[in-house]
Amino acid sequence: MKRWTKRLVRAVTSAVVGAGLALTASNALAASTEGACDVYVGHDQYTAFFWLDYHTSGSFDYPDTYRWRLLGTGLGNKNNVVARVKTVNTGGTDSVKHTYISGDNVPAGSSSRQISNVRVSRGSSMYGAYEFVFDRANDSDPRCTGRTKSV
């Protein structure tokens, strides 16, 4: 093999290995847990997809962002969102670590909300709980609730 070919193979191999290590480290630190709920009114379906993004550092999980996507027939721009970070309490009521309550102004489609200054011990199970109220013009507003898987 020619000298320039060997150098090229070494350079490509180093880049691929380095990228693989960076990707592995990144994936080990950031994650999300998700859930969805829907409600039917007559033949119309209203659906909410929900994600709780978080990262891990040391012995804590740090919730970073609530994300959601709202879909439905004739969905308006005055939807409501209540999102919470909760920890599992096997002996009773789960603890609330953070709450976001929107105004009457969440548009249809995708939106998100940042979470700050919250940490959950890795010894606890954490999850996202959510409630969505779907805005329908000149009609009652259906709602759905749910939770993500515990992490």
Domain module tally = 1
Structural class: alpha+beta
| CATH-level-2 architecture | Sandwich
Helix segment tally: 1
CATH topology tier name: Immunoglobulin-like
> What is the helix content?
10-25%
How many β-strands, per DSSP? 9
| Residue fraction in strands | over 45%
Which CATH first-tier class would you pick? Mainly Beta
Low-confidence runs (pLDDT<50, min 5 residues)?
1-28
The termini sit apart by: 51 Å
Shape: elongated
Explain this structure.
With 151 residues, this protein is of the alpha+beta class. The chain has a single domain (30-147), classed as Immunoglobulin-like. Helix content is 18%, strand content 50%. The chain has one helix at residues 3-29; strands at 30-41, 44-57, 60-72, 80-87, 95-101, 109-114, 120-121, 126-133, 143-147. Strand 4 (80-87) and strand 5 form a beta hairpin. It is elongated, with a radius of gyration of 21 Å. Mean pLDDT is 85; it is low at 1-28. Keywords: Signal. This is Secreted protein. Residues 1-30 form the signal peptide.
Quick recap:
The protein has one helix at 3-29; strands at residues 30-41, 44-57, 60-72, 80-87, 95-101, 109-114, 120-121, 126-133, 143-147.
List the helices and strands and how they pair.
Layout: H1 3-29, E1 30-41, E2 44-57, E3 60-72, E4 80-87, E5 95-101, E6 109-114, E7 120-121, E8 126-133, E9 143-147
Antiparallel strand pairs: 1-2, 2-3, 3-6, 3-7, 4-5, 4-8, 8-9
Which descriptors would you attach to this protein?
151 residues, elongated, 4-stranded antiparallel sheet, 5-stranded antiparallel sheet, single chain, Immunoglobulin-like
